[in-house]
Amino acid sequence: MTQSSETFEVVKSDEEWRRQLTAEQYHVLREHGTERAGSCALLREKRAGTFTCVACGNPLFKSGPKFESGTGWPSFFAPIEGSVGSSTDRSFFMTRTEVHCRRCGGHLGHVFEDGPPPTGLRYCINGVALTFEPE
């Protein structure tokens, strides 16, 4: 995985992140892990609201662009403008675009070019990286 050269507003030591996050959240957000497909309750969340970064509270996605992709992870066709960053992920013998929280750098998932209109993008996001705030 190519690390982003971005600097982030929220910076904590490894120990601080371990104390704040659950083991699964830490694995996904700080070690670029992936939760098991279909394991997150947010996959089925249909209420109006905002999905935020569990690590720093940054608003990432509104519920309007959320759609059922059939992949087993919450999927969105667009993030909130300016909320996420990206870098190149060359793990597992393939090249993908990794998506991270612009504020703390936490790994969220990946974005693919097989989503619905109007963007044609599918932000495939680990649900444990998110919290949901209903409107």
Radius of gyration of CA atoms, rounded to a whole number = 14 Å
Strands of the widest sheet, in order across it, are 3-4-8-7-6-5
Count of distinct strands? 9
Note the run of SSEs as H and E: HHEEEEEEEEE
Helix content: 10-25%
Average pLDDT taken over every residue? 92
Number of helices: 2
Q: What structural class should be given to the helix and strand makeup?
A: alpha+beta
Catalogue the unreliable spans: none
Terminus-to-terminus distance: 36 Å
Give the biggest sheet. 6 strands, antiparallel
What is the general shape? Answer: globular
What fraction of residues sit in β-strands?
Answer: 25-35%
Q: Notable features of this structure?
A:
135 residues, alpha+beta, six-stranded antiparallel β-sheet, 9 strands, 12% helix, 30% strand
Task: List the topology elements.
Elements: H1 14-20, H2 23-31, E1 49-53, E2 59-62, E3 66-67, E4 75-76, E5 84-89, E6 96-101, E7 107-112, E8 122-125, E9 130-134
Antiparallel strand pairs: 1-2, 1-9, 3-4, 4-8, 5-6, 6-7, 7-8
Describe the model:
- A hairpin with a 5-residue loop joins β6 (96-101) and β7.
- This protein has helices at residues 14-20, 23-31, and strands at 49-53, 59-62, 66-67, 75-76, 84-89, 96-101, 107-112, 122-125, 130-134.
- The radius of gyration is 14 Å and the shape is globular.
- The mean pLDDT is 92.
- Strands 3-4-8-7-6-5 form a six-stranded antiparallel beta sheet. Strands 2-1-9 form a three-stranded antiparallel beta sheet, with no helix packed on it.
- 12% of the residues lie in helices and 30% in strands.
- The chain is α+β, with helices and mostly antiparallel strands.
